[in-house]
Design a protein that fits this description.
Blueprint (H helix, E strand, L loop, with lengths): L1 E7 L2 E6 L9 E10 L2 H9 L19 E9 L11 E5 L6 E5 L3 E3 L6 H4 L2 H14 L7 E4 L3 H12 L5 E4 L3 H9 L4 E3 L6 H8 L4 E6 L4 H9 L1 E9 L11 H6 L4 E4 L17 H14 L10 E3 L4 H9 L7 E4 L6
Parallel strand pairs: 8-9, 8-11, 9-10, 11-12, 12-13, 14-15
Antiparallel strand pairs: 1-2, 3-4, 3-6, 3-15, 4-5, 5-7
Helix pairs in contact: 3-4, 3-9
Length: about 325
């Protein structure tokens, strides 16, 4: 079996890896597509030199937690999945086959492309944040940082009834993409009139804001354009110390700072604003199936795993497109 491994700093290779049959309660899947999670995988690939001492990673290591494929074998006790079923996989890795517990799978409805299904776990991070924002019809939402998570947040904010949805990023290309995906406005945070423009578009400040950059300066800027009693969702992973003037920027305006890490969810029993990870996946797959949501416009490249070294070299250099998938059907082709 083949697997993508980060063999050393800034270097990924396609390597041989052991495979195994499923045990009781497990399912073996032939992966079709796996999605690159640029932020997480760049941290692993580079050793996360930008972070503090507690966030360094060693080598060799591997990643890949959002994929899709076809069930090829099931272990004892499995009744909901059968060989031939199309499934979305959580934590399967960037590899040819994976064997995972049954709870890490969700059936993919007929008509949903497995390419889109491969992105559902990553998209769920943004959905969880937007749920916690508690957006009401007509409330404004500012999304800061237009990587993959930010663009998913734009889609979900619009779907949740936010208006206007304002996207912010230094990249003109990403701002244009955000507009095509449903943002009402797209702004450059380096514009001297940025804060003034956000406040004009939102009648004084954004009711909700999803901060996805993880940059301390971006968070400070976002707090400055959030409305009184607004909610700021911390979806980006700030791995450095962050200075916040809590009295002026949080306490006095009554702003809520809400942790939106993907792990900050209930393990069981979804409830208002707090769905389990797999329930969020089922919701997204249902919306994809109904045609009320699409991820096809967010897939920039579909690459063979044989090209892993080149793909991750670009990621290490920080020059990476939105929405990159590995197609495991192309392996060795």
């Amino acid at each position: 079996m083949k697997k993508i491994v980060f063999v050393s700093k800034n270097s990924a290779e396609l390597c041989d890896a052991p495979d195994r049959a499923p045990l009781t309660g497990e399912v073996r899947v032939k992966l079709a597509y796996t999605a690159v999670s640029a932020g997480t995988e760049r941290a692993l690939l580079t050793g996360n030199e930008e972070g503090g001492e507690g966030f360094r990673f060693g080598f060799p290591s591997s990643s890949g937690y959002s994929g899709s494929g076809i069930v090829c074998e099931v272990g004892d006790g499995i009744t909901d999945f059968h060989p031939g079923d199309r499934v979305m996989v959580h934590g399967g890795g960037h590899q040819e086959f994976c064997t995972v517990p049954e709870k890490e799978l969700v059936h993919v409805p007929d008509g949903v492309d497995l390419k889109e299904a491969a992105m559902v776990i990553i998209a769920g991070f943004s959905l969880a944040a937007v749920r916690k924002a508690r957006i009401h019809l007509g409330e404004s939402c500012l999304v800061v940082g237009l990587g993959l998570l930010g663009l998913f947040a734009v889609k979900y904010a619009r779907l949740s009834g936010a208006y206007p949805v304002i996207a912010a990023d230094f990249s003109e290309e990403r701002r244009k993409l955000a507009k095509s995906l449903g943002a009402d406005f797209a702004l450059d945070p380096s514009d001297p009139d940025y804060a003034k423009t956000v406040k004009e578009l939102t009648n004084g400040g954004a009711n909700t804001a999803v901060e996805v950059t993880g940059n301390p300066l971006a968070l400070k800027q976002t707090l400055g354009v959030t409305a009184k009693f607004g909610r700021v969702l911390l979806l980006g992973c700030t791995r450095t110390l962050t200075e916040v003037d809590f009295y002026h920027d949080v306490h006095r305006p009554g702003i809520e700072l809400i942790g939106a890490h993907s792990g900050a969810r209930p393990e069981r029993e979804s409830h208002s604003g707090f769905f389990t990870e797999m329930d969020d996946c089922r919701v997204t797959l249902d919306y994809l199936s109904a045609g009320r949501l699409s991820f096809s416009d967010m897939i920039s490249e579909v690459r063979s795993p044989d090209e892993a070294h080149e793909v991750y070299s670009r990621l290490a250099d920080g020059k990476f497109p939105i929405g990159v998938l590995f197609d495991w059907n192309k392996l060795g082709g």
